[in-house]
Specification:
34% helix, SH3 type barrels, elongated, alpha+beta, 149 residues
Length: 149
């Protein structure tokens, strides 16, 4: 019994946990929730994210929409007949099946997908017309609803 009490006293003397030194989550839970809604419910909205000082703005879309659009754009660039283009589109759109109602990951999404995305710079936006964009949620340091025009 004395040995057990000694062990408890040793454990109690360990350094206290300092809240400021506890590791923080790598992904903003609220942004992850917005991405989950986009992925499972098809919600689309304007959003601006900051990644290492880079500002990216566009329309939040589901992973399904992203991969279907990506497959379509990728296939249209190929010099092939319609059957060949369809085969390429289907292959490049395959990841879209991971998204939709009932397809959410218990750990939450890892990527955010935008359409009409532009990278904002002091001299304007790149590209001018917007593009499909995919980014890792662990790299996002901040976000706001709405697009920068």
């Amino acid at each position: 019994m004395a040995e057990e009490q000694q062990q408890q006293e040793i454990e109690q003397k360990e350094e206290p946990v300092i809240p400021a030194m506890v590791e923080r989550p790598k992904i903003d839970f609220y942004l992850q929730h917005l991405v989950t809604m986009a992925n499972t419910e098809g919600v689309e909205m304007g959003i601006t994210v900051i990644l290492g000082g880079t500002v990216v703005t566009g329309q939040l879309i589901s992973g399904k929409t992203y991969f279907e659009s990506f497959g379509e754009m990728f296939a249209s660039a190929w010099n092939a007949d319609e059957d060949g283009k369809k085969a390429i589109q289907d292959a490049m759109s395959e990841p879209a099946k991971m998204y939709g109602p009932g397809q959410s990951d218990a750990a939450g999404p890892s990527f955010i997908h935008l359409k009409n995305a532009t990278v904002r710079t002091p001299s304007g936006a790149l590209p001018n017309e917007g593009a499909l964009w995919r980014g890792r949620l662990t790299e996002v340091s901040g976000f706001m609803l709405g697009e920068i025009k």
